[in-house]
Protein: Sulfur carrier protein FdhD
Amino acid sequence: MGRVTERRKVIRIRDGVVSSRPDTLVAEEPLEIRLNGKPLAITMRTPGDDFALAAGFLVSEGVLGAQSDLRNIVYCAGATADGSNTYNVVDVQTAPEVVVPDITLERNVYTTSSCGLCGKASLDAVRTTARFPIADAPPVRVSPDLLASLPDRLRAAQRVFDRTGGLHAAALFSEEGELLDAREDVGRHNAVDKLVGRALQNGELPLSRAILLVSGRASFELAQKAVMAGMPVLAAVSAPSSLAVDLAAETGLTLVGFLRGSSMNVYAGEDRIALRAAAAQG
Structure:
């Protein structure tokens, strides 16, 4: 299994003083995901929670939707020419009744923003493939004060970031603000996949009462992952993309950006935010 961090020698310059010292870096390695023995995708990730990452990725692609859809996940032995195991190739085995599209390395599954398509095609793909319509989810209501408290709670859970400064993070919170799970990775989309994959493995999908918080911007791909897992609220400390806002508006996702201190922008789904109470307090 690859390490989450690695040590490298650096030349440090501080106030004109030059010194040599070891530095802790976040590890980054490729992970090839195979589906029933067929190559599907390669992603650069921080080693760890690889099975959850693969499962969450397949939830986002519309292949998996329930714990019963997943038969097994294994590391592929003999992943190199000499037969050694790099722990960088996983094979996801689905249950016999799961219908899987013909998949190649070109990823002929339903398309995401990372496949080079955008606009209405991507929006239609998510809307028609999502198993857990957010509009049908139980009502969730959160206050601006609760949302404002979440970034500090996520930051406190970023243990590897404290040592490297080089990781994104994603976390699931309850509507009462309880931290349910948090994951770190060099890719924020991988961190979200790890959250969703663990939820699938534990039989917890859909995440219809959860708030997803990400440590950077809210891209279309992250909004897609929230929708595919049935999450009603996505909050980000930075900006959303225009296509993420379009997807949120079309699917009923509550999308919050620039969540910093007591300030935030609500781009879609404002009905889940207790705006009237906040206005009264102001």
